[in-house]
Amino acid sequence: MAIKNQSFSTILVCLLLYFFTTLSLAQSDFEISGGGDGGYWVLLQPSIGISAMHMQVLNNDKVIIFDRTDSGPSNLTLLNNQCRQNDDVLYLDCTAHSVLYDIASNTFRPLTVQTDTWCSSGSVDLDGTLVQTGGYHGGERVIRTFTPCQDNSCDWVELTEYLWDRRWYASNQILPDNRIIVVGGRKVFSYEFYPKNESLPSSYYLRFLIETRDPGEENNLYPFLHLLPDGNLFIFANRRSILFDYVKNKIVKEFPVIAGEDKRNYPSTGSSVLLPLRLTGENVSVTTEAEVMVCGGAPAGAFIKAEKDQVYVKASTSCGRIKVTDPKPVWSMELMPMPRVMTDMLLLPTGDVILINGAANGTAGWEDAVNPNLNPVLYLPEEEPTRRFVVMNPSTIPRMYHSTAALLPDGRILVGGSNPHRRYNFTAYPYPTELSLEAFHPPYLAPQKAHLRPSILSVELMDRTVSYKQVFSVTFVLALFRPSGSISVTLVLPSFTTHSFAMNQRMVMLDVINVAQLSTFAYKVLVNGPTNATVAPPGFYMMFVVHAGSPSHAVWLKVM
């Protein structure tokens, strides 16, 4: 969609509309807490009828949210008497366990999921369809899909083919060839692919998964998966990590064990991100540097102490970073401002990381944690080590076990869930089942920074589809350009988030060729597209223009 001879009046109108929208969002009737440089919170919905255990942002600006189906009736009735029969808990269940949330209108509608999705996993394919795998009991080998639509006709579809193995507490990663790899699960030490290759006799055994399992605690469930720019897979479980060639079913190398004694995976639940891949400067023509970060967790034995003795030990206070592309990678350790377990880690459009949700004591599990971490923490990976962690303003709602979070196209963080109980329990003290949705506004969304925020007018791409290494331009308006505030363009692959791990999450910082001023408020940035499918797997990405640390509202691009 090209832009030619854009008139000053048109640009001015777009700019004014953008700023009025920003101000109306900040000054709406929602319940607001916090402010200043520490960000602020907005209560979006006091109840969506279900607890948000799993969350995925879709390319039509909607969010699919779902819980488990075996927790009894939810607080949201299914439409048109679409009841489920022979449920694990109820013979006839006429309540919803999934919703589709509309970001723009702040509304939601119930969806129908037939089998149990408890502690499952997912990825979005090239065409924007969520492929969701596994769960519990009748759902443990089920493959479900959800394809976005522009009306209210779309709903969950359960495929007739099944996974090779039960996948409960497994992790997924989208691959460069549009396949999805599904790794691990409770008492399952294998991996497999979707679409399934029916010519193969079974899944693939991965000894690493049984080697990292602690007797009585496990601590290797929901392994952290990151696709690296060389096409191999980084797999982290417990305290160990490997570089894995999933094509040859071969461990290429094992990385050093992360420092300290803390366990990092479920139920001693930490979190992990692949830090932004920077296709700038030398990285355009050479191997892209990749760095993984792991934060939080719990000491060995913490889960058993919480389960048997109701003793909630202090969670991990450490993070580790490792440049996995270095010839001799080593972990660099840092201390967080407070201990954290069950914390979500999300990449922000600026390249920073937000740590949000969770507790300071205990582990994941039923009533196994106390002392909620109400304060998010902003992590600035490019700052000096002593200035990297910045504590944000707190929420008023504890987000404990089975809470989740996701980055939205407007830069907010959607937060929901928290149900540390076997059933919905609204009278439990101090952590009742939580059905609300709220949004955290990072400091870059403060109203006083609106003049620094770009607004995208157009993208010069056919059907907003970019090919690898394709040069394209983005036109945007800006009230006040700061010469010292550089312009960057970032692509963010939305994550499937559950149990404190944002699967498939990815940020690619594109190479900016130049920035040209078109008029008083309008600018055009020329960029190189992503280099290849191992750097940016095919699919729908949120594209942000960032100026002086302030991101635009994203537009959706398809990379292929």
UniProtKB/TrEMBL annotation:
Residues 453-559 form the Galactose oxidase-like Early set domain. Residues 1-26 form the signal peptide. SUPFAM superfamilies: E set domains, Galactose oxidase, central domain. Residues 53-444 form the Glyoxal oxidase N-terminal domain. InterPro entries: Gal_Oxase/kelch_b-propeller (IPR011043), Gal_Oxidase_central_sf (IPR037293), Glyoxal_oxidase_N (IPR009880), GO-like_E_set (IPR015202), Ig-like_fold (IPR013783), Ig_E-set (IPR014756). Pfam families: Glyoxal_oxid_N, GO-like_E_set. Keywords: Signal. CDD domains: E_set_GO_C (cd02851). This is Galactose oxidase. It comes from Dipteronia dyeriana. The lineage of its organism: Eukaryota, Viridiplantae, Streptophyta, Embryophyta, Tracheophyta.
